[in-house]
Amino acid sequence: MTAKKVAIVIANYNCIDILRSTLESISRLSYTNYKVVIVDDCSANSPDQVLTEFPEVVLLKNKKNMGFASTNNRGIRYALRRGADYIMLLNNDTEVTPHLLNELLNHANKKTITVPKILYFKNKNRIWYAGGIMDWEHGAVKHIGMGRNDNLDEMKEIREVEFACGCCMLIHKDIINEVGYLPEEYYLYHEDVDYSVRVRDKGIRILYVPTAVLAHRIGYSSGGTSVPYKKYYFYRNRMYFIKKYSNRCDSKIAIENTINDAKRDFINGNFETRYYIIRAFMDFLFGKMYRMSFSIWRIKWKKIELLFGEPERMKRI
Description:
CATH class of the largest domain: Alpha Beta
Number of strands: 12
Number of domains: 2
Oligomer: single chain
Number of helices: 11
Shape: globular
Largest sheet: 5 strands, mixed
Helix content: 25-40%
Strand content: 15-25%
Strand order of the largest sheet: 3-2-1-4-11
Order of helices and strands: EHEHEHEEHEEEEEEHHEHHHHH
C-alpha cells in the first residue's frame, strides 16, 4: 500500500533563529513521505538563508502580514493542489520526536484529527498540552495536564478531546474539504478553538495520541508570552468567539468572566498592556476583526504614559 503523502505546513514569522532547529528535528522523522511547506508571513528577516541548508523545503512568501490562520491556509491550499493526503500544521518554534508523524498517522482518518502530547521545551518532563476541553463559562479552552509531570498514567491514554491545538494537528484532506479552512478573521489566537468547534459539529473526532510527542517553545513565534499586544487579540477574539457561539453557552456568564479576567490584567499590567486591553474591547464593540489597525489614539496613550507611567519604564523610553 502506498504511503500517504503528508504536507507539513509551517507558518513562519520572525523566527529565523530557531527555524533551523525545527527543520533539523523534522529531518529526523522516521516517516519519510512528507513535504515541508513554509509560508513566511512578511518577516523582517526572510528565512532564505536558513533554507539553503534544506533545499527540499518549499518556501512561500506573503507580500504583507496576514496572520496565523491566513498564512496556514495558504500553505494548506498549496499542499492540497499538489496531492497531499494529510496536512500537518506545525508551529515554527517546536522540536518533533522521530516517531511523531507515524503515531499521528496510525490513528488519523477521514473522520479523525489527531493531536500529539506537547511538552515544555525548557522542561521536557512537564506537559503543556495533552488534549484540551472547552471552557464555555469563559469562552476559551483548557489544556489537559498543563504543568503536570509527563510520567502520569492518565497522560499516557489515547482519548477523544474537544480541542485541537494549532501548534500541531494532523488533518485528512477530506476533513478540510468538508469543514473548510481556519477562520481568518481572528488573525491571531482562538482560530484553532473555533475550528475545533466546527469539526466536532460535523461529527469529526479529535484524538489525543500520547505516543506522538513534541516540545514547544511557548509563545516564541509571537514574541514571548508577556508581549502586551497579545492581550489585544486574546480579549477581542475571546469576546468575538463568545458572541459567535452564544447559542452554546450562557454568554452573559462568559462575558462577565472575560471582563473580570481583563480587569485583573488591566490592574496588574503596565500602561501599554492597559492600552491593548481597552483597544480590544473597543474594536470588538465596533466589529473590527482581522489585524489590528493603526490608531492615532495609540500616540495619545503613549504621551499619557510618558507623563504618568512608572518611573523605571519612563527611563527606558
